[in-house]
Request: fold
Amino acid sequence: MSSHSALDSRGVDHTRRKISLAFRLHIDIPLLAGLLLLTTFGLLVLYSAGGEDPEMLTRQITRVAVAFTVLFVAAQIPPHWLKIITFWLFMIGLLMLIAVPLAGESHKGAQRWLNLGVFLIQPSEMMKLIIPMMVAAYLSEHHLPPEPKRLLAATALIIFPVLLIAKQPDLGTSILIASSGFFVLFLAGISWRIIAGLAASAAALLPLFWIYLMKPYQQQRVLTFLDPESDPRGSGYHIIQSKIAIGSGGGFGKGWLNGTQSQLEFLPERHTDFIFAVLAEEFGFWGVLILFSLYLFIIFRGLTIAIQAQETYTRLLAGGITMIFFTYFFVNVGMVSGLLPVVGLPLPMVSYGGTSMVTLMAAFGILMSIQTHRRLLDQ
Amino acid sequence: MIPALKDHHFEAILFRNRATLAMVLVSLVILMLTIRMFNLQVTQHDHFTTLSNDNRVHTVPIPPPRGNIYDRNGILLAENRTTFRLEITPTRVPDMLDTLQRLSQLISYSKEDLERFHQEIRLNRRGARRFNPVPLRFSLTTEEVARFEVSRHQFPGVSINDRQTRHYPLHNLTAHVIGYIGRINEEELQQIDQGGYRGSEYIGKTGIEHYYEEMLHGTPGIRQVESNVIGRVIRVLEESQPTPGDDLFLTIDSKLQAVADEAMGDYRGAVVAIQPKTGGILAMLSKPSFNANLFVNGISSRDYQELRDSGERPLFNRFLQGQYPPGSTVKPLMALAGLETGQITADKSTFCNGWYQIKGYKHKYRDWKKRGHGETDLDKAIVESCDVYFYNLAYSMGIDAINSYLSQFGFGRLSGADITGEQPGLLPSRQWKEVNREEPWYPGETLSVGIGQGFFTATPLQLSSAFATLANQGEQIQPHLLYATRSTRIENPQLQKYASLGRITIKEQSNWDQIHDSMRRVAHSSHGTARKIGKRSKYTIAGKTGTAQVFTIKQGDKYDEKSLPEHLRDHALFVAFAPMEDPEIAIAVIVENGGHGGSVAAPIAKQVMDRYLIDYTQEGAG
Reply:
C-alpha cells in the first residue's frame, strides 16, 4: 500500500503500536457505522414514502452503494494531496459557475447544469466541498486566527461563488455553501467582534438580497412561511400537510407503511425533500429521536475527528465538512417542521436522489482519510 | 498578543475550543428541533389527528335510483338504463387541449358536447367539486367503449363510467305526459333541498317527471370513504343504502294512446280520454310530439332549434296549454243551462232562417247553415248544431248566467290534474272584460260565447273533463294520472284513491237524460252531425261536434275551405262519452285546421272508443 510506504518514509515504526485493519483501509468504524445505520433507516422510510415501489428502492440502493464506493476511494487520498489540488479545483469550479448562465442547461426554471458532452455536471454541487477545502487551505497557510486582510480575502472566496449560485437560482445550495464557509472561519478562531460584525452586515444585506437576488417564487415561499394559512391550496400547502403528517404521527407513529398523509399522497414531495414528515408520521416521536441521535452521533464523530487532526488544514477541513452535513440536516428538518422557509434541500442520506449523497459521502471519505492518515506517534 | 510564527499548540487549543463550541451549538439546535417535534407530535397530536382525518375521510352520497313509470297495465314508460359516459377529471389531466385533440380521434364529440363540457368545468371550478369527473359524451356505443379501453393508458384523467340514465321507451308517444328529466341547472340548485339531492345530477323538468319529482327521486344513501389527495376512493369505511324513488303507475293506457296517435295521423291536435267514473285519464295525446330522450342529457342546440322553430310546434303541449275556442261542443251544456234557468223547454221551438239579429243592431249573426234550419226545438238544435237557436238562448240568458253555469263544468279554471304546466283557458265574464280589456261587455259578445266562440277558450283536458262530468250526470271526479304507486317499503302497488269534487245539482234530474239523448242522436240519427260514426257502432255514443273559427269572416263574405290557407282553416272538434247508458269513457278530440268536427275529429274519437270498449271486452272474453 502506498500509504504504508509514505508512513515508512516518515520513519514511523509499526512495531510500536498495533494498527487495526480498518485503519489500514482508512476506514473510521464509528463514522461508517453511523452512516450505515442512517442510510438503512433512510431506505426503510423511502420504501414507504415511495408507495412500496421496489424499483425505486433498487435505484436508491444502487446510489447508496455508489456513494459508499466514492467514500472508500476518497478515504484513500492523503489530505496533503487534496491540499495541493484545492486551488486548481477551486478555479475550475469557479469557471464552471461562470459558464453556467452563459452556456448552462435549464431544468424546472433554474439554470444549474453544464453539459460536458459526456455527462451533465452541476458545478454548485461540487462547490459544497471545494469552498471549505479552499478556505481551509488558504487560512492554514498562515497562523490562526487570521489577520483582517486574510479574513477579507477568505470572505471574498466564499461570497463570490455564493452569489453566482444564488443567481441560478439555487437558494438552498447558496445558503449551505455560505454557512460552510462561515463555519470554517468560525473554527479558525475569528474574534467574536468580527462574528458580530459579519452577522450585522449580513442582516444589512438581507433587503438587497431580497430585492435583487430572490425570484418572486422564493419571496412567496418566505411569505408563506410567515403565514402558511394565507394560501392553503398554493404555496402554504406543503407546510400545512407536512405539519399534519408530523403531528398526527404522535408518540409512536401510525406504523410503517401506514401513514395516511403519505400513503394517500396528501404530502407532496414525500420521497424527496419532505421525507422527514413521512418518518415522523409513521414512526412517531420515538422514530424522530432515533433519527436525531444518529445525526448527532455522526456530527459529533466528525467534530471529534476534526479536533484530533494534527494540522490546521485538516482540522478546518474536517470541521467545515461536518458542519455542512449539520446545516443540511438543520435546514431540512427546520423547513419540514415549519420552523424555516421552504428551500429545496434534501434530508442528507435519507431523501431519494443521489447527487447530494455522493457529495456528502465523498466528504465523509475525506473525514476518514484525515482520521486515518495521522502520524500516530506524534500524539 | 498574536504570535508571529505558527504556534501549533496555540492553534490546536484555539481550534479545540471552537470545535467544542460547535458541538454545543449543534446540541442546542438539535434540542430545539426535538422540542419542536415534541410540541407537534405530543402536545398538538390531537389537533393534527383531526386535520389528518378530515383530509382522508370523505362522505360520498349515493344517489337513489329514480322510480320507474308504468302505464296502467304495467307497460314501461320511463326507466333507468345503464349507459356509458366518457368523463374527464380536469385536475388529473396534464394537458386538456392535447387530451381533447387526441380523444377526438377515438370518440367523436360535437361542438355542443364540448361547449357543455367547458360550461360544467366552469360551474365546478371551486371547492371539492373541481375534483369531480365531468362528462364529455353520453351514451357511448360498445364499439366506442372498446376503442377507448385499448388505449386508455394514454389518457390520464379520462375514464369511461357507467351511469344511470333515464330512458323513455315509447319516445314521442308519451313525451307530453311523462315530460322529461334533465341535468340540474343553477337555478334549480338554489331551490332544491341540497341534502336530498346530494349526488343527484338530474331533476324532473316537465310533465309527470316534474309533478311527482319528490316521489320519483328517493333519498340518497351515504358512503364514508377513505380517499387520497386526488379524491380517488381507496376503501369504504361505512355505507348506508339509498332509498329508491317510488315506481308510479299511471292511469294512461299506452296501447290506447297508440291507437289515438295512429288515428290522428299527420294532423296536429290533441286527444284526451277519461274514465268518467274514476277521473282516470286513459289517453292524453298532443300531436306532433318529440323524443323526450333527447332532453335527458341536454339537447343539442341544433336539435332544439329544429324543434322550437318547426311550424308544427312539437314542443307545444296542446292538451294542457292549447287554449282553443270550444265551438259548438258547448251547446249541450248551454242547453242544460237554458233548461235549468227556464229560458227554454224541450218542446219550445225557435225559427232559424240562417241568421240572428239583436233588436236595434244591424249586425247579422250567421248560422253555419246558410239557408237555416227552419223550425228548431232543443233536440234538433243539438243534433244539427243550430247556431241561431243558441244565439237566441245566449241572448236571453245573458253572460252572467252563462258564466255561472259553465264554470260549474270547470271552464276558465285549472282542472287540477296531477301534471305540470296546465293553462286555465278563458270563460269570459263582465268583470273579466272590464279588468282586462277596460271595456264594458257588449251583448253581441254573449252570442259568440253561446256557441263557444269569441273570448271563450278551453283546453282539451278541460273539455274532456267537462263531458266526463256530463256523462256522470253532474258528479265531478278529479281528473288525474296517478293510478298506483309502489315503493320499496311495500311490495305491492298501492292504488290511488280518486277524489270526487262534488256534484252539480240541478232542479230537474230528467234534464240530464234530455241532453244525453240529444247527444246520442248527434251520432245515431240521420240528421246528426256525427251520424257517420254512429251508423254501425256496436255501442251507443253520446257526442257533439264542433268547429272553431280561427279566422273571422267579414260580414257578407263566404267561408270557402278550399281557398283558405291551411293554417286559417277551422279547428275540428268532437266530444263524446260512451256507452251512453253507462259511460266508460269520455273523450275530447281537437284537430287543428281540420275543418269539420263531424268528418275529421269524430272518426278519431270513434277509433279510440272502439279500441277501449270493443277490443278490450273481446280480449277479456278471449
